[in-house]
Design goal:
Number of strands: 3
Structural class: alpha/beta
Distance between the termini: 36 Å
Radius of gyration: 16 Å
Strand order of the largest sheet: 1-2-3
Number of helices: 3
Largest sheet: 3 strands, parallel
Strand content: 5-15%
Helix content: 25-40%
Shape: globular
Low-confidence stretches: none
Order of helices and strands: EHEHHE
């Protein structure tokens, strides 16, 4: 449930990593994004910042459309749902989640922007490392 007075919602997580059923996990990632946007539309007065991924922009080995660098025109068109390849399923889910987010946000009137980092870094889970203190 989203509070009625919400202003900004940051969608920052999808399941990443091997699971027992990577195809279902990928579908769940997409469904979670769709559910969030529908809920935001009902709440009203919400803007979405979607943390997508370079996985939505390019699949493994996929070249930029302009032959030089990736832009907002590039979409991952090669990753597929493959039960033997959780990485491909994850990449597919990021591309499909962002596509659906743009479609739903437009049709339901939810202002949205997306960011596509290549990797998100955080502090290490092992705090004995000094590398987290910058």
């Amino acid at each position: 449930k989203i509070p009625c007075d919400c202003v900004n919602v940051y969608h920052i997580a999808s399941v990443f990593g091997p699971t027992d059923d990577p195809i279902q996990t990928a579908r769940d990632n997409v469904q979670g994004t769709e559910d969030l946007i529908r809920c935001m539309a009902k709440a009203g007065n919400c803007r979405l910042v979607l943390t997508s991924s370079m996985a939505a922009v390019r699949g493994t080995g996929q070249d930029p459309l302009n032959g030089k660098y990736y832009t907002h025109e590039d979409w991952n068109t090669i990753s597929k749902l493959n039960g033997d390849n959780w990485g491909s399923c994850y990449q597919w889910s990021k591309a499909e989640s962002e596509r659906r987010a743009w479609e739903l946000s437009e049709s339901l009137g939810v202002p949205m922007t997306s960011i596509c980092p290549s990797f998100v870094f955080g502090p290490p889970s092992d705090r004995t490392s000094k590398s987290f203190s910058i």
